[in-house]
Amino acid sequence: MLKKRLYILCICILAGTLHTVAQNDTSISDSSNIAKDSTRKKEAEFKTENPVLKSKKTKKTEPGKITDHSPRKALKLALFLPGSGQIYNKKYWKMPIVYGGFAACTYFFIENRSQYLRYRDAYRLEVDENPDTQSEFADQNITPQGIAQRRDQHKQWMELSIIGIGATYLLQVVDAYVDAHLFDFDVSDDLSMSWQPNFQPGLNTQRTMGVKISLNFKK
Q1: pTM for the whole structure
Q2: N or C terminus: which one in the chain shows less Cβ crowding within 10 Å?
Q3: Contact assessment for residue 77 and residue 180, using Cβ atoms and an 8 Å cutoff
């Protein structure tokens, strides 16, 4: 009888021990899951607060906004074909200015070159010491020195026209490159400027008149 009681007591003690161990395992598992969830939540919050860690694939852009506008591409286009950089930047109104500059400089180059050759040949005829050859200015009382001065003047203007063509080319390249950098620059009505006369105290209690300029940033 005593053995039976001891046997039952041992079974109860063993069952209680197993139940306690099971509860401990469950609590440890629950604590581990809570810790993992907390860690994941903190990592998600950290990535949200740090845009550098965000994936480029999740970057959202506004509808219709161009984000891949390349200044280098605008530069290459302008170098290859004048005016194409302005078209790439969607500044179509600059095209007539670019080609108008080229047309004007080219016209003055052709005109001044023609006059330069004209006065150059006339000067050669005047100083060749051959009485049988006369220039077209022989009956206009223009001395060889006057012809030489006009020749040099048109030569200078011809060279300036060439410089103008090169300057127009370089300006349209620079304009296309800089304009491409400012393509996504937001110019809104949040910035306003106003000016008004202002009087500042000066020496001997005299006031100095000036202009006051104010920049206002609206929210």
Answers
A1: 0.56
A2: C
A3: no
